[in-house]
Amino acid sequence: VDIARFRRRAARRKAGLAAFLQKLDAIVPEGFDEVVTAADTATWAEVDCTTCANCCKTMTPTYTTADVKRIAAHLGMTPIAFRKKWLYKEEETGDWMNRQQPCQFLRPDNLCGIYDVRPADCAEFPHHNKRPFDDYNDTYLGNLDKCPATMELVSKLKATVERDFEW
Ligand code: SF4
Ligand code: SF4
């Protein structure tokens, strides 16, 4: 993934894709979940996360209590020591987040150093498997200029819906 090129494309496309997602909030075409599944498969044939890692470099996961317990045990630390070393508590939400970006567990080869025990939030990102898909429109909207896979998926969905549906 060429991140500089992605950023330029995202800047050009964002308004149109955001308008598409907003319309999708109000009207969902019939059989849309099948359209999403096909477009998502095509997206992952084009996007390789190991050449990107933009999420791990520019965003933070939210750590649940179970995440902290599991990862701390994996690292031979107590949950308290783990939080103290790597996390901060967001005042408004009370969520535990990474203090630093890129994520401290991202390896130089763009792979996750704690992949088997990574936070659930990381395992689910970029949430393309969530159904009904349109329940997560705000998430995709927020990630359009952060995740090349999400931008590609929403671009494909917009093109398909505009071509194949009376919408
Ligand atoms: S999930 Fe998105 S941002 Fe993260 S590595 Fe894959 S394409 Fe890049
Ligand atoms: S824990 Fe792993 S997958 Fe999650 S942000 Fe850090 S490096 Fe990326």
Secondary-structure content class: mainly alpha
Q: Report low-confidence residues grouped into runs of 5 or more.
A: none
Q: Identify every distinct bound molecule in the structure, by name, code or SMILES.
A: iron/sulfur cluster
Q: What is the number of helical segments per DSSP (H or I, 4+ residues)?
A: 8
Shape: elongated
SSE arrangement, N to C: HHHEHHEEHHH
Number of strands: 3
Radius of gyration: 18 Å
Distance between the termini: 32 Å
Helix content: 55-70%
Walk across the major sheet and give the strand order: 1-3-2
Rounded mean pLDDT is 97
Please state the oligomeric state of the protein chains shown.
single chain
Strand content: under 5%
Largest sheet: 3 strands, antiparallel
Descriptive report:
This protein is mainly alpha-helical and 167 residues long. It is 55% helix and 5% strand. The chain has 8 helices and 3 strands. A 3-stranded antiparallel sheet has the order 1-3-2. A hairpin with a 6-residue loop joins β2 and β3. The longest helix has 24 residues, at 3-26. It is elongated, with a radius of gyration of 18 Å. The structure holds iron/sulfur cluster (2 copies).
Concise account of the structure shown:
By secondary structure, the protein is mainly alpha-helical.
Helix and strand arrangement:
Elements: H1 3-26, H2 32-46, H3 54-58, E1 62-63, H4 65-75, H5 79-86, E2 87-89, E3 96-98, H6 120-124, H7 137-143, H8 148-164
Antiparallel strand pairs: 1-3, 2-3
Helix pairs in contact: 1-7, 1-8, 2-8, 4-5
The structure holds iron/sulfur cluster (2 copies).
